[in-house]
Amino acid sequence: MFDVISRNFVFLMGGLLTTFQLAFFALVGGIGLGMLVGLARLSKNPWIYYPITGYVNFLRNIPLILVIFWFYFVMPIIIGEAMAPFPAAVIAFIFFEATYFGEIFRAGYQTISKDLIAASYSTGMTYSQTARHILIPIALKRMTPSLITQSIVTFQDTSLAFVIGLTELVRRSSIVDNMEVRSIELYGFAAFIYFIVCYTGSQISLYYENKARKVNLI
Amino acid sequence: MNFAYQFDWSVLWRDPYGLMLIKGLGMTIFLGSSAWIIAMAVGITVGTLRITKYRLLRMIGTAYVEVFRNIPLLVQMFFWFYAGPMLFGEVLSRQINRLDGLAIYVSILGLGLYTASRIAEHLRAGFASIGKDQYQAVLSTGMSQVQMYRYVIIPYALRLTIPPLTTEFLTVFKNTSIVMTIGVAELTFQSYQIDAETFHGLEATTGAMFIYLLLGMSVVKFMDLVEKKYKIQGLMGR
To answer: Quick one: pLDDT at residue B234?
Structure first.
C-alpha cells in the first residue's frame, strides 16, 4: 500500500529539506527582527513606536497566504527582475513572523523590572548595551516556551509557500499525487511527518514551561 | 531585465474585477461563519471531554487536539479534499466527487474541525480557572454530571474565554484564505485571479489586504459587544 511512498521517497525527502531550509531562514530572520520589533513596540520615540505598531497590527490582521503573494508580486518591482519562489518566500516569512515574535518579545521585555534596567544604566551602559546584555537574554530565557510554540506554527506555515510554486513537502506530495492518484498515502505521509516534528516540538516547549514554573520564573 | 511597473489601481473596482472582490469577501464571510459554528460545537465537546472524570474520554479529547494542532491546515485540507472521498470506497467516492460545491463543504468542515482543536484548548484554560468548590457546589444542588456541564460549567467557561475566542474568531476568517488551494473562490483566490487576468496582482492583493483589515476590525467591534453583553458581574474586566 505504501509503495508509492518508498518509490518517491528521495523526491519527497528533498521537499522536506526545502521545508526545513525555509523554516530555518524564517525563524532566524523572524526571531532576529522580532527582537527589534519588540523593543520598538516599547519605544518612547513616537517616530519609532507608531510606524512599527502600525506594521505589526496591520500584518497580524492579514492572512499569510496573501502576504506571500504580495511579496511575490512586489519584489520584482523593487529589484527590477523576477524573483525565485524561495527567496521571495523567505522575505515574506521574515516580515510576517517577526510581527508574532515581536509581540512575544514585547511581553518578555515587560516582565523585566524597571529597577534592573535603572541599575544597568547606572553602571554606564548605553541603551543598546542594555538591550543586548540585559533585555534580550532575559526575554529569550523567560519566553522560551512561547518562542518554541511560535516556531512550531512557523514550521507549519511554511507549507503555505506551496501557493507560489515552492517545491516543498506538500507541493511535492501533490506533484506525485497528480501522477499516481494515491492521495490517502501521500497526504497521510505528509501529515505524519509534520505531526512528528511538531509534536516533538510541543513536548520540548512543555518541558521548558514546567521547568520555568519549578524555579518560579513565571 | 529591467522594467518600469505601471500601476493600475482601477483593477480594484473596474468591471468585472470589483464584483469579483465583493463576491470573494462574501464567500470569505460565509465560510468563516459556517466553520465557526462547527468549530464551536465540536470545540466545546472536545474541550469538555478533556476535563471529565473518565480517562478514556480525556484521552480521546487530548488525541483530537494533538492531531489537529500539529498538522498544517493546508495538509488537512488536501487530505479531506483529495483523500477524504477515497475513504468511502470506490463506488461511493465517485458519487461524492460529483457533488456540486464539494470543495465548499470540505472547506467548512476542514476549517471547522481544525478551529475546534484550538477552541478546545482555550476552553480548557477557562475550565481550569473555575475553582473546584464551584463544581462541588453545583453537584450539591442535586444536578447530574451532564446537567452540571450543560447549565453551569460550560456557560461559565465560555464567558471567561471570550477574549481568546475573539482572537480565534479573527483567525478563522484569516484561515479561510487557505481554501483557495482547493479552488474555492474566496477573497484571496479572487485577488489572485485578477492577477491571472490583468497581471496587476500587486494592486489586487493590496486591495484584498485592506478588505481583510476592515473585516478584522468589524469582527473585533462585534466581539466587543458580545463581551460587554456577557460580562460576568463582579469579575475584573479589561
So the answer is: 63
Q: What is the pLDDT of residue A28?
A: 95
Residue holding cell 495538509? B75
| ipTM reported for the complex, 2 dp | 0.87
Note whether B190 contacts A: Cβ–Cβ < 8 A.
no
Mean pLDDT, chain B, whole residue set:
85
pTM here is 0.86
Contact B191 A66 (CB under 8 A): yes
Q: With an 8 Å Cβ cutoff, are A73 and B178 in contact?
A: no
Could you say which DSSP state residue B234 is in? T
The answer to whether B28 touches B215, Cβ cutoff 8 Å, is yes
- The string of DSSP letters for A123-173 reads TT--HHHHIIIIIHHHHHHHTHHHHHHHHHHHHHHGGGGGGGT--SHHHHH
Instruction: Indicate the residue of A63, A70, A163 with minimum beta-carbon distance to B174.
Output: A63
- pLDDT tens sequence across A129-182: 988 898 899 888 888 888 988 999 999 999 999 989 888 999 999 888 888 888
**Contact with chain A for residue B166, Cβ under 8 A:** no
CA A109, distance to chain mean position in Å, is 19
pLDDT tens-place string over residues B62-103: 999 999 999 999 999 999 998 888 888 777 777 777 777 888
Task: Give the count of beta carbons closer than 10 Å to the beta carbon of residue B3.
Answer: 10
User: Residue written as cell 487530505?
Assistant: B79
Alpha carbons within 13 A on the beta-carbon side of B212: 30
Evaluate if residue B238 carries a pLDDT over 50: no
Is B66 touching A (CB cutoff 8 A)? yes
Whole-angstrom distance, CA of residue B154 vs CA of residue B152? 6
Measure A69 CA to nearest chain B CA, in Å. 7
Cell numbers for B76, please give them.
488537512
Count of other CB atoms within 10 angstroms of residue A104: 21
- Which residues in chain B touch residue A55, judged by CB atoms under 8 angstroms apart? none
- Residues of A with Cβ-Cβ distance to B205 under 8 angstroms: 66, 69-70, 73
Facing residue for B178 by CB, picked from A65, A81, A199: A65
Q: At what angle do helices A144-157 and A85-110 cross, to 10 degrees?
A: 160
How would DSSP label each residue in B151-190? IIIHHHHHHHTHHHHHHHHHHHHHHGGGGGGGT---HHHH
The pLDDT tens digits of the residues spanning B119-146 come to 998 888 888 788 788 888 888 888 888 8
Radius of gyration of chain B (CA): 22
